[in-house]
Amino acid sequence: MSAVLSQPASTSAWTVASILQLLEKALLDLLFQAQQVHRDHHPANTVQLSTLLSIKTGSCSEDCGYCPQSRHYETGVREERLLDLEKVLAAAKAAKEQGAQRFCMGAAWRSPTERQLDDVVEMVSAVKSLGLETCVTLGMLKPGQPKRLRDAGLDYYNHNLDTSPEFYGNIITTRTYQDRLETLEAVRSAGIRVCSGGIVGLGESRRERAGLIAQLANLDPYPESVPINNLVRVEGTPLADAPPIDEFEFVRTVAAARITMPKAVLRLSAGRAEMSDTMQALCFLAGANSIFYGEELLTTGNPQVAKDKALLERLGMHSL
Question: How would you class 132 by CB atoms within 10 Å of its CB: exposed for 0-12, middle for 13-18, buried for 19 or more?
Fold first, then answer.
């Protein structure tokens, strides 16, 4: 019987080396351990359904090498102004009717102005009144802005670390890793729960994937919500020709995230349209327990609602 790697007692227990040891385990042993950890902290065979709406699309000043919304690349994504409150509220109502429990709103900004935040605060309050969990991703925040979002009823703020500190400079140059960490700290200090994860398949090594997980797992506390994105290769971006990550390597990443962050909600996010049903099932076995649910994920495709419902039914799974 293989030894089970458990987290040591110290608060900064998860080193890159210890997570790399997890990722290098025999796959079935790793999945067995991850599912045990999962069932110790979450109900079995359940998944949270979330919907993500782009409330402001395109012309972002950041140069994230994976993003079709960056103004640095020609990807065919047109700039769109901030949506009206009525459109956002209609989308949230439709999402709830289709079974979503969380409604996430994303804006392609480096950092919102106070006037822009006025509109987002109104959206958050309106969506919250429908009985949905609320989440936004708006880029970096200025002093005082996290408190305004909290007072509006925001449940989660999404700000991904994307990759490890060592690999980060290969992907983004317009925002530092420290900028991202400071944004997460500002959100946490305001009393908002943190949603932060990363993207795999950027060309990073297994050790660099371990480095991302270590960064997330050693946040104090680690994020309540951890999106795990599989790179969507978009024509016109620098990563359009990146080789796809091995499916089992992606599943290993999910499992390692589950073991190191046992209470977090792990979200299968971007890239799910390219995943087979079998791969998604393995991700659920590895500890994923949330999916983005709907026709579109910001500016890229997402499995359709009926297909998702059919898959969950075939697996004997159900929504929370």
Answer: buried
What is the pTM (predicted TM-score) of this model? 0.88
| In contact, 151 and 140? CB cutoff 8 Å | no
What is the rounded CA–CA span in Å between residue 71 and residue 74?
A: 7
The active-site residue out of 175, 180, 193, 267 is 267
CA distance 153 to 181: 23
- 267 among known catalytic residues: yes
67 is catalytic: yes
According to DSSP, residue 273 is labeled: G
Identify the active-site residue in 135, 175, 180, 283: 135
Determine contact, residues 160/197, Cβ cutoff 8 Å.
yes
Active site residue 104: yes
Q: Which residue out of 104, 148, 180, 252 is catalytically annotated?
A: 104
64 has catalytic annotation: yes
Joined tokens for residue 127? 């969506």
Q: How far apart are the first and last CA of the chain?
A: 34
The pLDDT tens digits of the residues spanning 261-309 come to 999 999 998 888 888 999 999 999 999 999 987 655 444 444 577 888 8
Q: Which of 148, 175, 195, 283 is catalytic?
A: 195
